[in-house]
């Protein structure tokens, strides 16, 4: 099944807030949240989380990576539930400590308010992004118990970003792969094409019953494999598209313009804000160019 709405998914697992930028919740004795979306949607997330948990507090907030649209409400969640532990990779913590990163997270979240207006979300929260500390670095523990029949395991999958972490609940076959599994027909290898593709193959081998993407969709049953296979093929097509143009001597800017014409201009809303889309597209093309140039020099030597 292809689920494009928020609500209960299966066996105490939920997608909450807004389907374009959901927060996932695994309920149990120690409830766990996954990612924290946009700051502008924080009130929707909190309301939906409270509808499930009542007076109970989320015990964990697991972050997949430090991108602005996955950490937006983390600081507000922490203010709402001060005992909740924010858990992320060491590299996520390092990225958030770099100069300029928080300013960019603030500004992209601010720009996303326009996207929320276009998507027809009202009301949205207009307060600023609140910086937060990461309470626990992944590594000290291999897994985290959430319920008697739900444990959160994690593994690094550094193809979308260097800090990327995927979460896996083996008892329920739930994989929170977010952008490591691609997104809305756009391949999401920002930093390493081969690691990204290898990640998708690994996800297929895990044979999840539920696949949580970063935006818009949760897949269940046979649609999981179909989605992952398509993500793999989309990455291959994208790579070939860029390589063909590099071979012809086209510039990075020319290639970006053509890609934008195909996969952003014509796309209906809700879609990624343009600045974030262009940043990511440039990153993807540069990653492929670097890989292609390495291949060229290997062939020459
Ligand atoms: Zn991302």
Q: How would you explain this protein's 3D organization?
A:
The radius of gyration is 19 Å and the shape is globular. It is built from nine helices and 14 strands. Helix 7 crosses helix 9 (274-300) and helix 8 (252-263) packs across helix 9 (274-300). A hairpin with a 4-residue loop joins strand 11 and strand 12. The strands form two sheets. The protein has a seven-stranded mixed beta sheet. It has a single domain (2-300), classed as Metallo-beta-lactamase, Chain A (4-Layer Sandwich). By secondary structure, the protein is α/β, with parallel strands linked by helices. The protein binds zinc ion (ZN).
Distinct ligands, ions and cofactors found in the model: zinc ion
Give the overall pLDDT as a whole number.
93
For the secondary structure, the number of strands is 14
Rg, rounded, reads 19 Å
Biggest sheet overview: 7 strands, mixed
Number of domains: 1
According to CATH, the homologous superfamily is Ribonuclease Z/Hydroxyacylglutathione hydrolase-like
Q: Which architecture does the CATH hierarchy give at level 2?
A: 4-Layer Sandwich
Specify the number of helices. 9
Going across the major beta sheet, what is the strand order? 1-14-13-12-11-10-9
| N to C succession of SSEs | EEEEEHEHHEHHEEEEEHEEHHH
Which CATH top level class fits?
Alpha Beta
Strand content bin: 15-25%
Q: In angstroms, what separates the terminal alpha carbons?
A: 49 Å
User: How would you classify the helix and strand content by structural class?
Assistant: alpha/beta
CATH topology: Metallo-beta-lactamase, Chain A
Any idea what the shape is? globular
